[in-house]
């Protein structure tokens, strides 16, 4: 893996899709000016995280939001991990993330597998679950991608790690209640489990449509140390992801050797 700089965007989703798209473009452009090689967006950044909005805001692939992400990646010569947006396909709606390269080409997409049906909120009332996951490859290395509630399922990260993922992106919109209990814990323990960086862009909190968003976009080191916590306000941060930090942690705590011991017994 090679070192790179990642821009983490924390923004609010208003009821005006065009406003959300314009804001996204502004933050991505600012991140590129600050030296970001990769920019990561939150879960459902173009759409308030409510069942009533998912059908209204859902697009087919290659409509306005998709094209806007392509353009901003190409114009700024960056990789874009496009958080997630509601996508219509075959009569269903998916919570889907797209990744674009420096030329604006789609290089990967992932639909959220584990849906949030907790605390009186049922994401599956409007969203259908995805079925597969893998890796996306860049000039900097091989990366994994999951979405929010997926964090509670360690086996999918183990699968991606075994395929060669060294950094994980997890766009999220945790609720305040679940976030206070488990958000930091889950990000930190998944980073420790996999000895990988976890980059978790989250929705900013407001007093209207996102008042229940926990926010707190994170970057967590392979040791479980939190190196970035963006609080609850809208904003952008650019941080450096360093390969030697991963190598150092694996040398200090040789988990793979212990895994081999288990296989051989």
UniProtKB/TrEMBL annotation:
Species whose genome carries this gene: Peptoniphilus olsenii
UniProt KW keywords: Hydrolase
Recorded family membership: Belongs to the carbon-nitrogen hydrolase superfamily. NIT1/NIT2 family.
Record's protein name: Amidohydrolase
Keyword Hydrolase tagged: yes
Domain (CN hydrolase) ranges: 4-243
CDD domains: nit
Keyword Hydrolase among record annotations: yes
